[in-house]
Design a protein that fits this description.
344 residues, four-stranded parallel β-sheet, 8 strands, globular, binds the ligand C=CC1=C(C)c2cc3[nH]c(cc4nc(cc5[nH]c(cc1n2)c(C)c5CCC(=O)O)C(CCC(=O)O)=C4C)c(C)c3C=C, binds fe (ii) ion
Amino acid sequence: MDKKGILLVNLGSPKSTAVNDVKEYLDEFLMDERVIDYRWIFRALLVRGIILNTRPAKSAEAYKTVWTDEGSPLIVITEKIKKKLQKVVDVPVEIGMRYAQPSIETGIQKLVDQGISEIVLFPLYPQYAMSTTETVIEMAEEVRKKKFPKVKINYIQPFYNRDIYINCLAESIKEKLPENFDALQFSYHGVPERHIYKTDPSKTCKIDDANCINSQVDTHNAYCYRHQCYKTTEAVIAKMGLPKEKTIVSFQSRLGKDKWIEPYTDETLETIPKKGVKNLAVVCPAFVSDCLETLEEISVEGKEQFLHGGGENFHYIPCLNDEDRWIEVVKTLCEEKLNDFYLV
Ligand SMILES: C=CC1=C(C)c2cc3[nH]c(cc4nc(cc5[nH]c(cc1n2)c(C)c5CCC(=O)O)C(CCC(=O)O)=C4C)c(C)c3C=C
Ligand SMILES: [Fe+2]
Ligand SMILES: [Fe+2]
């Protein structure tokens, strides 16, 4: 019987808050053709000729505000998830990051060193996107073919609509919601709009905007990131018994001048107080672990934008992180794949 193991994959962080380390990380990240999907020469001109001249210093300052004694929150939390999962499953668990260290290759190597030849790889993103799930799988396959051709990898699919995840997220939000709030905002990481019309044609958004965001449309292509975000939202608020009128969906972290999927979180935060939303709770379900984008961009910058727009109380709801109920979900999703190895 082949020995099995689990690899949890997250996005990754710079190795320190030094500007040069942030620059190295951003170079690897933004030169990924699934993140900035221009032809190599145009991507290099944009990233190395423009973005990397100014962004690393700005991002390094932002990272300093969230960095902990143990390191980047994203890495520290992913390690905590690994440790808790390891206590409840009977196969070895390792972590790997799509960018920087520990890399996906390092994670696979650690499993192989323990005699493992069948790996369940879990991209820790609830919704599918070219710049998340797809690039993780591409990288893992590249590494596997080049360095570990005898290893089999079974990939966990996006779980944006799985009942066990929805129940877990709904319960977690419910527990953390303040007593009085005018609206609950779901802020998802954005992507350039063209990303949802791209990649493999079977994964492309094929319907108009209104239907894409209408989560009732079941015939919609299962791999549209925007649609999956609306599906997650709809399922969670149904589970919580929250009226749709009390919820807002928006997309954060826009970079550059291209059109990204709308509405934008920063603009929404500035304008909703004028529409009567004075007490706001915000949750970020594109992330399973807190990171720069939630702890700085939402909790600090987002709060300022909301207060500046006339808001009064801003309440950030943390990600699932290493909550026990989330570890149970991770365990279940991993065990499903460990058990169906021969069905793929
Ligand atoms: C074109 C640029 C980007 C796309 C597309 C993108 C998609 C995307 N990203 C995440 C999750 C995370 N992104 C994080 C940081 C981050 N993202 C971008 C750019 C794009 N992301 C940049 C330049 C950065 C670095 C920070 C900065 O300079 O602003 C993080 C946090 C990492 C950390 O160390 O804490 C996460 C997580 C998703 C889910 C996604 C598409 C759906
Ligand atoms: Fe990002
Ligand atoms: Fe769509």
